């Protein structure tokens, strides 16, 4: 549209005509400006409409498409290059249309609503969708419906990961509490078994008690794994022979796998010493074994072997390494699954049958040990995981004492403070049998009152850490004010790092329950001799 201003000399009657023309000209100018602004807004709306990756389309009361953005057209163009004018049943299918028709009819009646749905895309697979139907009015009547489809798969995945994380945190807290209480029980069992060995000497009962002690040590390893799982356990690196770790895990793995799966264990002929946290390494092997079992629903062979290699390549440890290989002849994995197998929360198992954390946590554990884990898999031919750990030149320390290396008798008065009655009674009896005079208290306040009665008679304070009324650290501070040089030994079902974080440990030696009787007696003798 073209327009312009003009001048013309007018007089009398012509003046009013001129004024009207000027007013019309100004009105036209305003309308053109408004039209330009409207066109600009329309272009902006169209850009938003077209550039969004959300799917948008509009249909009329006959369910015919009247508008669709590029994202929706791209989604449907493989079958319907000319979308506009077609009906919803024709495009989305009769079954899908029948499922969403109640929502559409409610929207045509004037309601705006949203609902969750899913769709199996050719290029993206199954996706979770949030569908919103909004009524478009023409006067008082709804003439069209605008549909917005938003892909919420990532959001739902994050929500599921958050729920899973919260669940794992709750389980970890429960596991930590159970492990703490169980350690007290194991301390009692180990103590009385040791007393039976002392009293029975070479009798059959003493031999049976020895088996009890071995079982207690295996149970203690389980509680340490629980505490590690609950993030209440520091990593303890010790030099161990991987051949022994794998061989001793054989019985536990036999219980985990089904009868249809054959377990084959082969260990190297040479000793494989590595610096590892045994509990965490066992956790990795159990995770791999369980995954192998699940990959063989109809049975198969699960093989675990150890050996030596000098790996090459990026990310591999330098020099000679010990290798633990866990392999199966199960279903194997597709390439796209192999690429994501170590991702947190990624799992191919059905809902409720896997968290997707086993392999990711295993990967993290091996990395913390300066090692690496590699996988080989082929669909239909099985999967193999190889763990590479640097070899250590050191030999394992703290070998098991022989039966004849019994701790000798001691002397002196020990103030024993323990709120668990069974632990307190067993420890008192153990110390008395080895020559010590023992005063007992069930909490810190009672112990302090006993100490105040005769501070010079107590040569050592042996105390639990977490107790009612007064904890072990507070008791230690009070006792040290009365007798600055008295030695203190703390005991707890929690590791020392947890006690330090809570600020309730310090000022003395620390023993984590379950405490081996010989370890307790040896620590006592050392503390009294300094």
User: In what range is the share of β-strand residues?
Assistant: 15-25%
What profile does the largest beta sheet have? 5 strands, antiparallel
Ends distance: 106 Å
Question: Uncertain spans, ≥5 residues at pLDDT below 50?
Answer: 350-357, 399-405
Determine the fraction of residues in helical runs and give it as a percent range.
40-55%
| Number of H/I helices | 15
Question: What's the arrangement of strands in the largest beta sheet?
Answer: 2-1-5-4-3
Please tell me what the overall shape is. Answer: elongated
Topology of helices and strands:
Layout: H1 13-51, E1 55-60, E2 65-68, H2 70-76, H3 88-92, H4 94-108, E3 113-121, E4 125-138, E5 141-151, H5 153-200, H6 204-229, E6 238-241, H7 242-256, E7 261-266, E8 273-276, H8 278-294, E9 300-309, E10 321-328, H9 335-338, H10 358-368, E11 372-378, E12 382-390, E13 413-417, H11 421-433, E14 437-441, H12 444-453, E15 460-464, H13 472-482, E16 488-492, H14 496-502, E17 509-512, H15 517-529
Helix pairs in contact: 5-6, 5-11, 7-8, 8-10, 12-13
What does this structure look like?
The protein has 530 residues and is of the alpha/beta class. Helix 5 runs parallel beside helix 11. The radius of gyration is 38 Å and the shape is elongated. The N and C termini lie far apart (106 Å). Helices cover 45% and strands 22% of the residues. It is built from 15 helices and 17 strands. The protein has a 5-stranded antiparallel β-sheet with strand order 2-1-5-4-3. The protein has a 5-stranded mixed β-sheet with strand order 7-9-10-12-11, with helices on one face. About 3% of the residues have low confidence.
